[in-house]
Amino acid sequence: MGALHFDQQGWLISGARRSPSPHWDARPVHAEIALAVIHNISLPAGCFEGSAVEELFLGRLNCEQHPSFSELAGLRVSAHFFVRRSGEIIQFVRLQDRAWHAGVSEFLGRPACNDFSIGLELEGADDVMYSDIQMQATADVLAAACSALPNLKWIAGHADIAPGRKTDPGPAFSWPEMLRLLNGRGCLLTRPYP
Ligand SMILES: [Zn+2]
Hints:
Blueprint: E1 17-18, E2 24-25, E3 35-41, H1 52-58, E4 81-83, E5 89-91, E6 98-99, E7 106-107, E8 110-111, E9 117-123, H2 132-148, E10 154-157, H3 158-161, H4 175-184
Parallel strand pairs: 1-5, 3-9, 3-10, 4-9
Antiparallel strand pairs: 2-6, 4-5, 7-8
Helix pairs in contact: 2-4
Bound molecules: zinc ion.
Zinc ion binds next to loops.
């Protein structure tokens, strides 16, 4: 895939499918977007096909479709991006707006990470290898975000900012590999965790 770019409104110009979610609101005034948060999700857990994740982020998931979905009823969540194992990128929320992905969280002493982060959900599970094309697509999105957001300098996993509560993106996510892919795209994000 060639380099990705964002338009002035904060949507990827090409290389992604736009699927606007109603689950967002405005960031606090003067919030600087400093952090990218990596997550994983699959619905049902471990199932890597179908449209349930997209439907969840759009507020359209039929929670009677699967027994495990009952706990999702009424849940209003989103992410800026969903990167599927095929490498497909779906954007739900503009960069400038606040998506609802981190929940109760803290990064370097700062609470409420949604205020100052973008959220990327990778289709996956903690202990299942992510696909190469998915890792590359994720790095493509992050490199484009780095170009569009001058204050973006940090990257973390959901488990880093919500320890004890969240485990994603899990041991299957290779941080050295992601940082190497980002480096190759001239995007120097730092993950301040061992
Ligand atoms: Zn997460």
